[in-house]
Amino acid sequence: MTGKQKTRKSAAKRFKITATGKVLHRGHGVRHIRSSKSNKRLRAQSIPREVTGRMKMKIKKMMGAA
């Protein structure tokens, strides 16, 4: 007999699964050394992006939504 499936908390903090099943993540490289990056680049990084392909299925499995 197997136990309940647990959510990987590290994945839960980094990704979000929408109601339609898309997996979203934040852009990287926004936290430090911001002075050398343009405001346009920093704004673009703050927009959530969709994860696609095989990685999407792996993340869904980690989150218990597969």
UniProtKB/TrEMBL annotation:
Cellular component terms (Gene Ontology)? ribonucleoprotein complex; ribosome
Record field: compositional bias (Basic residues): 25-43
Q: Which UniProt keywords apply?
A: Ribonucleoprotein, Ribosomal protein
One of its GO biological process terms is: translation
A Pfam family it matches: Ribosomal_L35p
State a single Gene Ontology molecular function.
structural constituent of ribosome
Q: Where is this region: Disordered?
A: 25-44
Membership in a protein family = Belongs to the bacterial ribosomal protein bL35 family.
Protein name as catalogued: Large ribosomal subunit protein bL35
